[in-house]
Design brief:
By secondary structure, the protein is of the alpha+beta class. The protein contains three helices and seven strands, in the order ααββββαβββ.
């Protein structure tokens, strides 16, 4: 369902337009979007966004340890080695992630990760060890909607 459909249904359910075909123009949509965005901003909650669970993919970059991920939180990360061996990255808390000996400037198969939330509703994912290849990661997690717009 598109944002326009949701807004159109809200106008009809609220009795602001009738079901028989009153047109909703762009000014009506903009007014509704301003109101929705105002409601989201004014909520007195710790999390000021609407969230949903999704799966995304992102390629690993050889030698890179940190990645900016467009999710609020990550529940699991996996990738395929050579296209057939499934490997999972274990997500650790900050103490467990940094409380181990590390070899600098070595790359291989990432096995552990740490997730640092950012104020812009994204996370920074740190991996150890940095990847030695450009395998495709599959990440499942929570994505946020903190602004609505009509394209």
């Amino acid at each position: 369902m598109q944002v326009k459909d949701i807004l159109s249904n809200a106008y009809k359910d609220g009795g602001l337009v009738n079901e028989s075909g009153d047109e909703i123009d762009s000014a009506d949509y903009q007014r509704a979007l301003r109101q929705i965005n105002y409601v989201i901003r004014s909520l007195n909650l710790e999390k000021k966004y609407i969230s949903y669970i999704t799966t995304i993919t992102q390629n690993l970059v050889p030698g890179q340890e940190e990645y900016s991920i467009d999710l609020v939180d990550i529940t699991y990360i996996e990738f395929l080695l050579g296209g057939s061996i499934r490997s999972r990255i274990s997500i650790k808390n900050i103490d467990d992630y940094f409380d181990s000996a590390r070899i600098k400037n070595v790359s291989g198969v990432p096995s552990i990760g740490y997730i640092q939330p950012n104020p812009d509703y994204t996370v920074t994912l740190s991996l150890y060890m940095p990847s030695s290849s450009n395998w495709e990661m599959t990440l499942r997690g929570i994505k946020s909607i903190n602004q609505f717009s009509i394209n």
